[in-house]
Design goal:
Length: 83
């Protein structure tokens, strides 16, 4: 007999967006402050959008935002600048 816990699948953001009955909530992050992204995740937001198109967020800032949001259970999407 195995003591392993049964596998449980947490739906991805993509799966949740495809489910018309599932409410998915997110917001934009425009500050290079990982704590802000983490707080949004802790507040229950499903995703944050790092706006690199209209702000001065750098690639390094994005890396920190992704990690902070992930710790709190939120997914990070990046809105990038395309010249």
């Amino acid at each position: 007999m195995s003591n392993a816990a049964p596998a449980y699948h947490l739906p991805t953001l993509r799966e949740r967006l495809a489910d018309s009955n599932d409410l998915v909530v997110g917001t934009f992050v425009t500050l290079p402050a990982p704590g802000v992204a983490e707080l949004f995740g802790l507040a229950g937001f499903d995703f944050v959008v790092a706006d690199m198109e209209h702000t001065t967020l750098s690639d390094a800032d994005l890396e920190h935002l992704v990690r902070a949001a992930a710790v709190a259970g939120a997914v990070t999407l990046a809105r990038v600048y395309d010249p």
